[in-house]
Design goal:
Layout (H helix, E strand, L loop, with lengths): L2 H12 L7 E4 L6 E4 L9 E12 L5 E7 L11 E6 L5 E7 L2 E8 L10 E8 L9 E5 L2 E2 L3 E5 L14 E4 L13 E11 L9 E3 L6 E3 L11 E3 L24 E3 L11 E2 L29 E4 L4 E4 L5 E4 L8 E11 L3 E6 L16 E5 L5 E3 L2 E3 L10 E7 L4 E6 L2 E7 L6 E6 L8 E6 L33 E7 L5 E4 L8 E6 L7 E4 L6 E2 L9 E2 L4 E5 L2 E4 L11 E7 L6 E5 L2 E8 L4 E8 L4 E5 L8 E6 L7 E4 L6 E2 L8 E2 L13 E5 L14 E7 L6 E7 L8 E3 L2 E10 L6 E5 L12 E2 L12 E4 L2 E4 L12 E11 L7
Antiparallel strand pairs: 1-13, 1-18, 2-12, 2-17, 3-8, 3-13, 4-5, 4-12, 5-6, 6-7, 7-11, 8-9, 9-10, 13-16, 14-15, 19-20, 20-31, 21-30, 22-27, 22-31, 23-24, 23-30, 24-25, 25-26, 27-28, 28-29, 32-40, 33-39, 34-35, 34-40, 36-37, 38-39, 41-42, 42-43, 43-50, 44-49, 45-46, 45-50, 47-48, 51-58, ...
Amino acid sequence: MSAVNAAALLAAAGGDYQISRSVRLRSSASAYFNRTPASAGSRTTWTWSGWVKIGAISANDNSVFMALNNTSGAYAVNDWSGLFLRNNAVLDFLVGNGGTLNGRLTTSQVFRDFSAWYHIVVTYDSTNATNTERMRLYVNGSRVTAFSTATYPAQNTNSYLNSTNSHFIGQNWLSGATQSPFDGYITEVNFIDGQALTPSSFGETDAITGVWKPKKYAGTYGTNGFYLNFSDNSSNTATTIGKDNSGNGNNWTPNNISVTAGVTYDSMLDVPTLYADGGNGRGNYCTLNPLGYKPSATTITQANLRVTTNTSSAFGAVGSIAVDSGKWYWEATFAGGQYMVVGISSATTPITTDTLVGGTATSYGYYSGNGQKVNNNSGVSYGATYTTNDVIGMALDLDAGTLTFYKNGTTQGTAFTSLSGLFTPAFSDVDTPSGACDIAVNFGQRPFAYTPPTGFKALNTQNLPAPTILKGNKYFDATTYTGNGSTLTVTNGGAMQPDLVWMKARNTTDWHYLIDAVRGGSKILYSNTTSVEATDATAVQSFNSNGFTIGNNAPINTNANTYVGWQWKANGSAVTNTSGSITSQVNANPTAGFSVVTYSTTGASTATIGHGLGAAPKMIIVKIRNGTNTWAIWHSAFGADEWIFFTTTAKGTASGGWNSTLPTSSVFSVGNPASGNTWTTTTGYNYVAYCFSEVAGFSKFGSYTGNGSADGPFVFCGFRPRYIMIKRSDSNSDWIIKDTARSPFNTMNERIDANGSGAENSYFQMDVTANGFKVRHAGADHNVNGGTYIFMAFAESPFKNSLAR
């Protein structure tokens, strides 16, 4: 699919319903809305729906919405009803009444994706005869069913919601009346009095992208029902920004919410729908990323648009969006403190230590103290100094490779040239001379202080390039299935005919099976062993238009055993090529960046082999089919003579294995390594190579450095991953495979090792986000301090239209 067609499809997909604004609730300002109904509605049946983007999770419980007992002095949990984001990032749906906690649902999954929007629906229906249907919680259109606590009210039990007690959006009251506000963004709030509805009343799955999206609620609201879209920002009153647009007139009073221009402005263009508005564009906006490297001395607040550091730390924070092309503009206001540095940092090799922006070879900054531009820890005379209340604009032109800074709207000249790569906004203070620093950032979700240069855009998903692949499962999918011990057809979610199927038993020890359409469905290789290719007619009997059919082969289809099948799509037909002494068959899919290549040698010690991708591969996996040598793997993080295997061993060097030549857009090179092993080419042997090039928004091949902490590295992918494989390359470790088919919600725990036959286990925690993944566990095979790790990842959906997970 071309980018033009993809853009047209996205425009069509987003054109049916648009949300114009959200409101920022700053916990630091104790911002919230409140209302006290004049009369009670149905206290046994109601539905709340809202779109939420999380800014921060505090040590206390943060209220999304609630009602409480006005007469209670203790404000105990028994005196609340509502939805809370607890300090361990779980959602907690509580129904209290009359000093009794009648029902509670506390999720097992966590909600700490700060990069995008969640749609949350809470339904209360104590009239239902089935107790488990009396309280229901939905996120992004799907019902939540995994709870650490699940208690349900007796039939016909009243809740405080919809009573004449005080109601709040974004505010909480703990014991002793301590405030604990929600921090983040909220929009499209519907409250339905007297009906127990499902998410389908408020949203739908987009047929083009496969992503849950808002739709206009078309039903009735009931007496106390209301609809808040926060679209009228002419003032901060109950009849403007707090206006009920349902027609009921149930307006909400805003508290500590500003619509005055400046760093505290709270009416935002950050919304869960994409559309061009003739200005900055509306969609999911860049914010500061709490999941990125952030020293303990750094605090990110105000819905992730303000960063404060103290005197013991230099580094501050980076943005949640990274770009490698286009023209982009954003601003930072020096809000207080002594010194600051603003600029960009590589998202591929991010800052991982307490150093300033510009303190590494791949970060570039502008320093307030002396006006110098800084790169690789070296400062050069550049522009004016700046101080408190000065606004620094940054214009990053990755088409021309330049970065220009502006002070209060006046250009300081081009600071850096010849820039290329994937960059994200970055902000820090300095450690010499030391001093605290306070920086307010703006990526365009509130009005810019100064007009951006012509042609430069705000950092949001509307303005990101249109991805060529809108639904990842059209080209890659992970599918779980249960064996039946007979013929079994496995159907994937994307109606995609796979050309490579990689299967593994989950609940028992058994070998991995790799079968591709070029070699044929009966030809089996095993990633966990060096064994020669086996033939078994009971393996894959057919590659179907929406999956594959297998026979009663025990390792992949034992009755009642559970399995996963990872599937990649090439283009269905192999093309025979002859180049010198190499005869090869290539089944290539340039759109998805994947090809299956089989080849044999007839006397050459070196050769070039076409891969058919039209772009240089980022990863190549080769196996000799009629010999017992190990799998040979090249990754884009390696040099031309470096290898790694499907074993626990670290990366090695073998001169000649890849003929000391990096792959090109048309061929990869092979030769006999100096050690004489038959890894890639030896007379009389047959080989298969799986080649992968990188496709923006769909696949990513990179590396990261471990920090040995449970607050591990964040890896920006530019999409919401469906599949991730990780290997430590500088030391011994396993090849870890994770996917969202086996781990449908965060924290993602389930792992399978590509180099082992063992059953699935739950060691190694990770979060998947709308824009990448976050390591949540320390361990040698995934996050030892200073360790180097390579990875490959494939998308569920591109970041442009992903929701938070």
